[in-house]
Amino acid sequence: MNLHEYQGKEMLNSFGVEIQRGIVAQTPAEAVAAAKKLTEDTGTGWHVIKAQIHAGGRGKGGGVKLAKSLEEVEKIAGEILGMHLITPQTSAEGKLVNQVLITEDVYYPGESETSEFYISVLLNRATGKNMIMYSTEGGMDIEAVAENTPHLIFNEEIDPAMGLLPFQTRKIAFNLGLSGKAFKEMTKFVSALYTAYVKSDSSLFEINPVLKTSDNRVIAVDAKVSIDENALFRHKDYEALRDLREENPVEVEAKAVGLSYVDLDGNVGCMVNGAGLAMATMDLIKQAGGEPANFLDVGGTADAERVEIAFKLILKDPNVKAILINIFGGIVRCDRVAQGIIEAYKNIGTINIPIIVRLEGTNADIAKKLIDESGLDVHSVVEFQEAADKVQEVLA
Ligand code: GDP
Ligand code: MN
User: Fold this and answer.
1) Which atom of ligand 1 is found nearest the CA of 138?
2) Which of 24, 67, 82, 201 is 20 to 30 A from 234 (CA-CA)?
3) Does residue 27 share a domain with residue 3?
């Protein structure tokens, strides 16, 4: 589950990580009130208006702007709120901005004495250990740094039994070229950041930039936080941080009815029971020259109701040119599934795309007969290869 920048910063701060102060706003008037409050609390005269969407690269897309007066805060907030912000990480249509974060300006005066760093915390799957990845080249495109100057990116692995040790935080501060007060501040920052990562059960923190201010404080200016969904049961309060407006609406709907659905870019919708069979079915579709339009696991109880819901979800995707249903009847009986498909088909009314059904397992023969005799435009197949051939045929 991804958080907005403002939520991520608040969460980090609750674990003692120093952050650039900010207040979230939904309207230009709220933005002005937020700016006034920040001036009272921090003494800042200038403010930064930052679009809150679940995508990075906002600065490049025009979603992060400096305001030098309250009039500018109001004007810029008005421009950014409601815009469809296009960044290198959004689709071509961009993402609607519902909220902006008004922050203190932490760069001026004394910008020449500031430095921007990159720090992320993540799991290195190859070694099974958490890792802090960091670089002196913060603020800009870290992907470009990795591509062109990989020696400027450092990794520090953390032994799960020992945790992050003081010599490691010192090494990081040293490699970032810091000394004196800033060195000390950086060791505190990294230590608090790692504690936050572990305690919040996050799967990714990406703080870019981490800023060394002109008065040698070290603060998070941006925060990309992803929380491990499988650990959410331990953090009931984080559920309120979910912003459904940022998520794929069909995926949200599927989740609400307990179906595991992931939207993909292809043209063949698939409905499968079991994640392993779903993966194999997606391979099959690719081999047949198609591209899967989704991953959909209807689970063990593929009854009529669930099949109908699954059909409706798949049909919401206008790119779908065919649907492949591949269900193994181990616990569930194939004839029941077939009945479900037939009922769902009739309930939905017109389905103008070909449907290929492969039901294998208990009562598969009865199921095939039911489908063949239903009079519907449903092709039933038995073999995996037959299913692939049929997909190829209907796409041609
Ligand atoms: P991103 O583009 O989505 O990664 O958004 P960031 O939060 O990283 O902001 C983009 C850029 O805005 C940063 O790299 C900074 O250079 C700049 N920025 C952020 N906060 C301030 C600030 O307080 N003052 C100034 N002058 N620039 C800022
Ligand atoms: Mn950033």
Assistant:
1) 14
2) 24
3) no
Q: Which ligand is nearest to the CA of 60?
A: 1
In 3-state terms, what secondary structure has residue 284?
helix
Cis preceding-peptide flag for 209 (omega within 30 of 0) = yes
Q: What is the per-residue burial (b if ≥16 Cβ within 10 Å, else e) of 314-339? A: beebeebbbbbbbbbbeebbbbbbbb
Q: Is 251 a catalytic residue?
A: no
Q: How many CB atoms lie within 10 A of CB 44?
A: 18
For residues 210 and 219, is the Cβ–Cβ distance under 8 A? Answer: yes
What is the helix (H) or strand (E) element at residue 347, kind and residue range?
A: helix 334-348
Residue 19 CA: distances (Å) to CA of 10, 14, 22, 225, 302? 8, 10, 9, 14, 49
Residues 279 and 289 in one domain: yes
> Quick one: pLDDT at residue 302?
67
CA 345 → CA 51, 147, 215, 350, 374, distances in Å?
44, 51, 68, 8, 10
Whether the CA torsion 82, 85, 91, 92 is positive or negative: it is: positive
Q: Are 279 and 384 in a shared domain?
A: yes
Same domain assignment for residues 90 and 146? no
Span 74-94, pLDDT tens digits: 999 999 999 999 999 998 999
Q: Which two tokens stand for residue 44?
A: 């800042």
Q: What residues are in contact with ligand 1 under a 6 Å CB criterion?
A: 20, 48, 50, 56-59, 64, 66, 103, 105-108, 139, 208-209, 221-222
**Which of the residues 206, 261, 345, 360 is marked catalytic?**
206
Q: Which ligand approaches the C-alpha of residue 222 most closely?
A: 1
Q: Are 56 and 224 in contact (CB under 8 A)?
A: yes
More confident residue, 128 or 306: 128
The CATH number of the domain holding residue 10 is: 3.30.470.20
Atom of ligand 1 nearest to the CA of 55: 3
pLDDT tens-digit readout, 145-185:
999 999 999 999 999 999 999 999 999 999 999 999 999 99
Answer yes or no: do 4 and 95 share one domain: no
Q: Which domain holds residue 389?
A: 248-395
What is the phi/psi pair of residue 123, to 5°?
-95, 125
